[in-house]
Amino acid sequence: MPLILESYDSLPYIDTEISAAAREKADRELRRELKSVDTAAQHPLLPAQRQPQFSELVTKELERLAAGQPREGGIDLSRYQELDEPSEDNDAAAWREALRAAYTSSTLLKGRHTNLTLLEELGKNAWLMGNSQLDQILKALDQELSATKEEVDSVNRERKSAQEASKGELDALEDTWKKGIGRLIEVQLAADQLRTDLRGR
Questions:
Q1: pTM value?
Q2: Contact call for residues 168 and 14 (beta carbons, < 8 A)
Q3: 3-state helix, strand, coil in the chain (%, to 5)
Q4: In Å, what is the CA distance from 82 to each residue of 90, 101, 138?
């Protein structure tokens, strides 16, 4: 968040539009002023950004990818494929490993069967309920948006009426100010003339 905290009020409903030359001059002054302001600096009240702390495994993987090594296959799906029986009949360790793999595959298939059964029974209703909830959320957001737009329009209407009601008073004050400045200049000119006359004597 930039450290520019000033707010510039204007009277857009009663102010006259400035000329292109005046706008260009103002833009030039703003650009000159903004050069001295660090717009990228964070506000002092904001907490410092927290550095991410990954696990050792993730850190190693990120370092490996940063070194330009290719991505690897991810999850090994070979254990879920059709299993072959061990080639040697009397190798107990190979049979135990094959049995363990068969249990894993069986558990996976049971879980998939259960999930597919539930999806077939309840999936349609869950999908329809999800759509209904999303529709309700959308309607609520639309109502909130409409209310906010109406509130913005109301504030702008009040602002416009307040500015237009004050226009006469502001014009009178501006005329008084201009006349006062004119009289002040006349007095200064008369004083300068009087000084000149007194010095000339």
A1: 0.44
A2: no
A3: 70, 0, 30
A4: 22, 10, 47
